[in-house]
User: Fold these one by one.
Assistant:
Number 1:
Amino acid sequence: MADTSPSLQPNDPAIARLRSEKDVALADFFAQNRGRLRRMVEVRLDQRIAGRIDPSDVLQEAFLDASKQLDDYLAGLPMQPFLWLRFLIGQRLMATHRRHLGAQKRDAKRDVPLQGANHPQAFSESLSCQLAGRLSTPSFAAARAELQVRLRELLDSMDPLDCEILALRHFEELTNHEAAEELGISTAAASKRYIRALERLRKTLAEIPGLLPEV
Amino acid sequence: MEEPMRETDDTRDHIEILAEEFVERYRRGERPSVAEYASAYPAWADRIRELFPTILALENVKPGASGSGGEFHAPAEETMRQLGDFRIVREVGRGGMGVVYEAVQESLGRRVALKVLPESYSSSSSALRRFRREAQAAARLHHPNIVSVFGVGEHEGRHFYVMEYIEGRDLDAVFNEIRRFREAETPGAAPWRDAAAIGVQAAAALHYAHQQGTLHRDVKPGNLILDRNRNVWITDFGLAKLTDQDDLTQPGDVVGTLRYMAPEQLEGRTDVRSDVYSLGLTLYELLTLRRAFEAPSRHELIHQVSFHDPPHPRTVVPDIPRDLETIVLKAIAREPGHRYQTAGELADDLQRFLDDRPIRARRISSLEHAWRWCRRNPALATSSTVALLLLIALAAGMATGYVRRTQALARESQLRAEAQEEGRRAEANLQLAAEAFDDVFAKLSGAPTSRVLAETSDGLWYVNPPTVSRKDAAVLSSLLEFYDRFAKQNRDSRRWQVETALAFRRMGDIHQLLGRLDNSETAYRRAAEFFERLHNADPDRGEYRVGLAGVQNELGRLSLDRGDFEQASRSIHHSLELLADDGKTTPATAGARFELARTYHQLSFLDLMRQLGPERTPEVDGAPAARGVASAERALALLEQLSAEDPGNGEYRLFMARCYGHLWGAGRFAQKPADPEQRSRQDTYAEAAVGLLEQLVSDFPENPHYQAELALTYAITSHAPAAPETARQAERRLRRVEQAVGIAAGLSEAFPEVPHYRAVLALCSLHLTHHLWAAGRQEEATDRAGQAVALGRAAQADSPTDSRSRYLFARALHTAIRAHELRSEWPAVRPLLEELIELESVPAGADADTARVSPALADAYALLAEVLEELGEPAPAAEAARKAAELKPGEPAPPRPMRFGPLDGRLGERSRR
């Protein structure tokens, strides 16, 4: 699927360094992107086990995976190094979820096959929790719970692909190029899909007053 | 990669390219605004405005923005069933400081609220120490509007706060609900009063906490809970202190906190005024139902809070009462020094708004800056005059402009709005004028500005303000015209009716001080009209009744001054009626009790004057004096209680001294003046009066009026008793009177504009004359008498219609004539006699019908005849003798109750003997 990766440059300096310095370069590269990678874990970690799992542990395991598979990666270069790390983290996350939640969360509707990985869907939960949290204050409990349920319903009714691209662009801070590659689509398609998703989210959120900042 | 780049950036959505850049800048910490992008790319402006807020929403709620997204995830439900002794019932909310649960404390079976801190707190021992310290401080607060903190707890590493559980909703929720149902809300309801009532409770609670040394630091709608009974509860005292500065970078609730932070708080300075600010901003939002500051980002919010003022509430919701807006604007002033200095002051002003009383906060205008500048000018007298003139010119112009414009433009709604604004400005200027008035008055009287009705005091002789010039009075009079005009235009504004009534009352006081009794009466009558109207409109309002009674008392005193006892009696009894006095029950408020005491004091004076005064009724039999004693005693009882309640109030003691003076004066008329028991009682009264006044003068050395009162009392009570006394006693009395003359002379010199002090000096000099004569120093006494005549003449010129100055002048002339007569100095007697005859020929008393010809006039003509005979002018002497016979053939004048000695005897007594 390398042909759908519009931006992979084989003589990318990062790749060149990985080739020459191997683990040292990998550690540096990992450290440089640690923030975004950690965010990915946080976003995608199921809310039900978030209290029990430390994202650092997931990252640690993913790094060990990367170190083991580095030579294979450099041989094939299926994707950009950053997306490769995301791929590995995605795999680790899936394993973690299986271990803690078993198969109960295998909801077909919400499992969206993505290129290289099958990330757990946490967007709507995460977003509804965050947005409701913004409005919530102590002793506003009933209204808040109600709001959160309603938000989640609304977000769940959105196209999972819309949710995914919004999560990638905002929660995981991917650029359009990276998101396109992650989703295995062209940059133009990623661009249009992102804007369409944004538009749908806007309409959804507009149903609940006070959620969007007034401009 | 070998694929041709047919999908270049050109094929990307333009908005998406802009969005990416926008987000990138945003993440770098720049705070690009949506509006900025919309105006930079007008072709996509609409879509930018549509989509970018959603982008910001996503960015703001992004998990883990601070590096640990921990507290944004709910703890797994199953772990939160029990926390030690506490059984969790349900989650009731969550914020930056953790999750709040409703719980039952099983050992005590009571319902509590638990605030479980984020786990990050459990790992830092210093954070935990701070948490415990703050919790202890909060636990010490016990107030009906503060959520009690029972304590802190820890269970399996989770730290929590145990609080009183309040069934209610926080103001954030209330806002949202009101916003949602705004349209459905019934018009005519008074949400403003509800908002003010919430503010009063919250401000009072904050004030209490501040007095206990605890700052809240995070007052915001989310921390104010409204229960079903509309009581407000403040929660989370001091919790904000636990949050590090770093935590402000967190999204969500912390931004909610930031929104209400005072500008100085953002710079790390916090005091009670920061809490005042936050509460003010909360009230702002409660009134306008919109955010005072709204920014998509923390950075922009900080910028707004630091550098911008939110729009005035009335520009958002025009119905908001102006006073309420003024209060809120004062509370949220950017500069802490311009805010209410305590939460208590804020509570008081809100309460005043609720009571329809004038609030203390003022609106800021450009005129105010001029006024403040003038006040800083050390040359007070001139600068205040300049400032007042400036004010009058501007304010008056404003008011007339307003009237003309409203009339002319009434039909055009757009312009009508302008005219209304003009009216608002006129009113603001009026408020400023009112303050200028107060300020000058306070400066003149040396008393703190007090706008409470019935606290302005009066005096037995003249009113209190000791230093005022006629020029000041003229300026104030013009200011008063403006008041009057404005009050007429705003008959429905009760507040301005009150202000105007008070202003007239004060103007009356000032005129009275200047000896202009006619002007004074006019002002008092106008004040009475205003108070009367207010009283009729709202008969249950105590302040209006007390205010009207106060003016009636002043009018009564003016009548007394003029010798019109009937009119005086009517005013005094009107005042008694208003104060609803049945002689048994006592009014509740201190103001009403003081006014009642003043009324009795006045009544006692009236009765004593009937018996003892220069206009005494010949047929009196002692009954008025007895009544006077009873009234004075009633007044004393009231005053003693007031003074016990508020020992710092000098006015209460001043009136007590005067009442003792009345009792002393009544004793002079006792049946057996030589009775030792009577004499010892007399001495007790005199010493009580003198003692009180000496203490007052030492407590208030700056108040010249107390000094004048002391001088008067020294002089009057030193009056020699009828029974003989030792040489040492006589010597002591003489020294006291000399002291009195010294004080009065100093006052007259220091305050040449105030005729009262000259009158006091004249009276003291007159007493000194008698004492010197009694001591055998006849030549000195005669000189003193001459000075007393000059002073009496001046007093008479100052206030021609004042019966007391006339009496004083007549007494001085009489004494000087007697002194010269006894020393057979006929050439000196003649001009004095002629002056006395001229004075006494004009009937005293306001009403010519009731005025009586002075019995002393016949004696004066008789003596004049004698003197002219001595001087070898038989024709005029015969004419004078004929006049004397015509006036009173051989009938002696009634005996004077208070005789000073030989100088006090009848004119011509020597020759008759």
Number 2:
Amino acid sequence: MRHALIFNVISVITFLIAVGSLATRGLHLGVDFTGGTVMEVNYAQAPDLNKIRDVISKMGFVDAAVQNYGTSRDVLMRLPVKPGVTSAKLSEQVLDEICKAEAGNRSTAYNDVCPQVVRSRCEAEAKDKNLPAKDICPAGLKKDEEAALTLRRVEFVGPQVGKELVENGALALLFVSLGIVAYLALRFEWKFGVAAIVANLHDVVIILGFFSIFQWEFSLSVLAAVLAILGYSVNESVVVFDRIRENFRKMRRASVTTVIDNAITRTMSRTIITHFSTQLMVTSMLIFGGETLHYFALALTIGILFGIYSSVLVASPIVMWLRVTREDLVKPEKKATDIGAPI
Amino acid sequence: MNRYPLGAYLLVAFALVASVLYTAPNFFGEVPAVQISVLKPTVKIDAGVMGIVEQTLKTNLLTSDGVFTDPDSIKIRFKDTDSQLKARDALERALNPASDNPSFILALNLISDSPKWLSSIGALPMYLGLDLRGGIHFLLQVDLQAALGKRLDGQAGFIRNSLRDKKISYSGIARDGMSLVVKFRDAAMRDKAQREIETIAPDLQLRTVDETTEFRIIGTLSLQAQKDTQKSALDQNITTLRNRVNELGVAEPIIQQQGADRIVVQLPGVQDTARAKDILGRTASLEVRLVEAHAGDPGSRDYDPQKIEAALKGNIPFGMELFSGRQGERSETLLLSKNVLLTGERLTNAAPTFDQQDHRPVVSIELDGQGARIMRDVTRDAVRRRMAILLIEKGRPEVITAPTIQSELGGRFQITGSRSTREASDLALLLRAGALAAPMDIVEERTVGPSLGAENIKIGFHSTWIGFALISAFMISYYGVFGVISVVALAINVLFLVALLSMLQATLTLPGMAGIALTVGMAIDANVLINERIREELRNGNSPQASIHAGYERAFGTIIDSNITTLIAGVMLFLLGSGPVKGFAVVLCLGILTSVFSAVMVSRSIVNLYYGNRRKLDRVSIGQIWQAGAERREGAAKQ
């Protein structure tokens, strides 16, 4: 507890940096929240991104982003919502244009670059005319695996849906916080609930701060990770609080500071081992989980690292400053039945 | 001594056996199958269809590897893709003799290769989300306001006609947003009209607004009518979508309502977004025509089997067309006039109800003002004639019903002759399909290619497996025998979780797989808590047996507290999350439940079995215990 003040000052500084960045730079929200279209295309040979950018900007997209995704052969395109153009048309048009461009670059036939597109068109036509597909489809169409480029993924989120997802995300954060405070207030005392949630919201703000400073993409799965961390690092605080309560019963003469100090020291090894184990798993996800899980695992990593420190070194001092007393926790009439009572 | 009552051991053993059974189907892989489902709403899967299927397989010398039926589809499993393709072609010929007018969909599918007895106890492999198996996900928004507006327009026409018939003069009738305004020049007419409207349009709530020169009645749809209209618009769109998706030949499509006004469509395995969107966005139309000749009921007019016979031979009279339609169970051939009396736009409602007199199921129809006028003019001279209603989808007309006109009809009439309420509601749905679909927009779309799906499975599996191995190595090196026990409990936790996911058929997504990994990482917490507690008890000089006992007892409260907070987060994520996040939340919540059970009950059982019965237990293997350091800290604390 001697160093509580120093740690809290550090907390306040990192917290302020995070808040400052959030206020000035904001979050780089993913397509889930802003609305728009994301297309992932796999090229057989690494393409020239600038050429693809030219094609896209010629189609009238001003804010489109084109970048590599994972490998140099995978290209991710982010297209903003364009009023008047339906998602259906949009992804088709873009695919059509980049197929044409790639055919031009390689000076080969369109059919060889994007057999997938050609096949789906001629098969649809055949079905409508009630003829066998081979009568209409061009002969010698390549297999999809041999195509020069294949569409791997399309995601379109309408602006209305995006707005709702933001609202639901904020609501989820609020309800999780309220739920945890209520549970801790019921199980321990309101002071503990407040302390735990302050400590852990501080983690959340720091995770968000990282995403803001580095402008990492904040997607739905990152939000899920943030909420999971909120639940997870409250764990830490709960374990320490459990010990504090137990110590209040056992160490009858000790001062409040000594009781809290002792609880932290005794749970320290467990905190480190647990976090280390969880981090092993998350690291494995970060390294082997590919692009899709990258930011999810990153958010978890930051959350776990800061979780160790915040629950121990932020939550407990707050409890102390809220002037927790022995009487808050050790209620004489309930003593015998409480879990964790001395045997 | 640490012993569990027999019941506890039995519970753990039972959970283990059940988990192994329910996890098993995931390891059997998948085999090719042909899935038959109905395309036309007028066709049903019954014993007759089963007979054709069995007969076809027999004559083509194809042996199936199991046939599974449910009310909407038949799945036939085959040993290899070769016989799967052959069977598909043979069945296609047998079930859809007219290839331009198919009644069934035959889709190639992959189904689990688990033994039949496993499937029969409901043990199925995990249900993979679209990001793992590839496919298309759409979220469609239904414009319910438009549906309400259309209904009000219908009511307006209806009122206009009725006031004109009753010679009540009004100066104007128009829809203003979501209300209907009827204007009058004097109060007496207004009151007379109000009484009239109350009887003919009971769905409207009326109020009057009077100004010096103008008297108005303002009608709004009652809450109940609004609810009914919106519900039927949604049901209608879902049915329409289902019929269209069926046409795509998707093996396991999902079409369901989400929230108040949205519909989710998931098409696993479909890659061709453009075609899917084209088919989903198509509109159907409805036509009403008079029957010129039929060979059905001799009591109706135009009963002329000879003419039909001649027409079937190609001798179709000028201005007529030949159609085959279904009337209840039997199909019949009709000669229809080319003259279209009414189209779907004139229809404002079609709902299944019961006849007032004999309480038989009927379909009640409402037409708008113009439709009612046409209907009256036509039916006045056509009593006892038959009237055919055609549904035209994709340019392919089908006669859905051809009732006999019993009397002069107006804006509201009934179609009788339905044998069951189900038949009546099917007919009402078909009628609405061609007329009342509310407009829909795609508000979300996610397409995942099959190669990406397979890659995602690999990624998810790898990262979980490597993480698990790392944790195991660390736990065993740190805690010795207790580490081994923790790792076994952790492995059993994964088993429970996979079994539970398979049992509930919850959708597993890539974030869901991340959830499994994260649960493993977090579940170890409970074991660490227990092991640390036992160490601490040992450090305090307690006997090993007492330490084990106290360690488990004391850690329990902490484990529960700390897991409930995570559970709160999981439940909120489930309630407020969507799509992939929901998948993560399900796994997180289930994982917490299984991890509490496996860390507390299962690991305790193992410890009890391993150490519990030893009368003399001097030391347990739980890694290094720092005796001296602990005492120093204890001393400091007690000062």
